[in-house]
Design a protein that fits this description.
This protein is α/β, with parallel strands linked by helices. It has 2 domains: 125 residues, Rossmann fold (3-Layer(aba) Sandwich); 205 residues, Methylesterase CheB, C-terminal domain (Rossmann fold). It is built from 11 helices and 15 strands. Helix 1 links the parallel strand 1 and strand 2.
Length: 371
């Protein structure tokens, strides 16, 4: 698939919709073009998309999975090998969603209920947010409007968990715990990070921004990866955090780290979105600062926006070790950049050195060289 070079964008960013339903293509086109920063071209299947790509390269692609002649994942695999570009995948199938993210899709959004106007309004907003995020992640020249990219109310962590200092307790646990926040590009980042930990690594709690219903499939995929020595699972309410295990917070609830006896547990709570996310790394990091203080490490990795930056600063102020993934190894440097800007990250290091830095900290070794 030899494609022409993408022309410099002077006007709207071109979005190619690849879907076999003419009605859905038209409805998606109407939603996307409601934002004047985008214009849409459509293809009925991947073969038609290839012919269009030969003439003009879009800024990004919105791709269906189930199509005749060639399914969306096969097309995505070929596209990413021959001409990588930002792709938003639309599917309800969790396993396929995780596979697409592994292949390099920027975002995955669940299919809508076209029959429910109220739900469609919410879904349309989410779709536009995904398209904008993919454009920014692909470093496309998207104009920044004065109005925010989302109409959602922006809440702080205070709406879920009051800000309190870490209070040491006599005889309290010195068990270590690791809190990780990651978003766009996170599936590939976790696949690179987790294999670097030994089987006795500290217990971990992870917020990975994903559409509802997809986190369980990701946890299962990571747990079955033969390169990963630790266990990986979707967190359950009140589940203990233990060595050699990583827990992913489910979609659409917040995850908190709580002290319990000589260890820690995960608490899953409802609440408004924080930093436009649920689960939010901001909430996870704040709770970890309060529960574990200097016995914790906070890690903020690739992702769009600023979720987690304030919470990571609270962790550092509580004595925790704090790490930001460096720009060179991020798909999107937004979350780590904001954490660094606020002084939240004590260390800024490549993804392939993060696990070694944490294990050196666990062993009590000098971490001064981990920059």
């Amino acid at each position: 698939m030899a494609l022409p070079e993408r022309a410099a964008a002077a006007g709207p960013i071109e979005v190619m919709i690849v879907d076999d339903s003419a009605l859905i293509r038209q409805r998606l086109k109407s939603i996307i073009e409601s934002d004047s920063r985008f214009r849409v071209v459509t293809a009925a299947d991947p073969y038609e998309a290839v012919e269009l790509l030969k003439r003009s390269v879009p800024g990004l692609i919105l791709l269906d999975v189930e199509m005749p002649r060639m399914d969306g994942l096969t097309f995505l695999r070929k596209l990413m090998k021959q001409h990588p570009m930002p792709v938003v995948l639309c599917t309800d199938q969790a396993e396929r969603a995780v596979t697409a993210l592994e292949m390099g899709a920027m975002e995955v959004i669940a299919k809508p209920d076209w029959r429910d106007p109220a739900k469609m309004a919410t879904w349309s907003t989410a779709l536009l947010d995904s398209i904008r995020n993919a454009a920014r992640a692909g470093r496309l020249p998207i104009r920044e409007d004065r109005a925010p990219a989302t109409s959602e109310t922006r809440n702080s962590a205070d709406s879920v968990l009051p800000k309190l200092p870490y209070i040491p307790r006599a005889g309290a646990s010195t068990e270590r715990v690791v809190a990780i926040g990651v978003s766009t590009g996170g599936v590939q980042a976790l696949q690179a990070l987790l294999p670097c930990f030994p089987a006795d690594a500290p217990g971990m709690v992870i917020v990975q921004h994903m559409a509802p219903g997809f986190v369980g499939a990701l946890a299962s995929r990571l747990d079955k990866d033969p390169k990963i020595a630790i266990e990986v699972a979707e967190a359950r309410h009140q589940e203990p955090i233990r060595r050699g295990r990583a827990l992913l917070i489910p979609s659409d609830v917040h995850g908190l780290v709580r002290r319990t006896g000589t260890g820690y547990r995960v608490e899953l709570v409802d609440g408004p979105k924080v930093c436009i996310q649920r689960p939010s790394a901001e909430v996870l990091f704040r709770s970890t600062a309060q529960a574990a203080g200097p016995n914790a490490t906070g890690v903020i990795m690739t992702g769009m926006g600023d979720d987690g930056a304030g919470g990571l600063l609270e962790m550092r102020e509580a004595g925790a070790m704090t790490i930001a993934q460096n720009e060179a190894t991020c798909v999107v440097f937004g979350m780590p950049r904001e954490a660094i800007r606020r002084g939240a990250a004590k260390f800024v290091i490549p993804i392939d050195r993060i696990a070694a830095a944490i294990m050196a900290w666990v062993a009590g070794a000098d971490t001064g060289s981990w920059h």
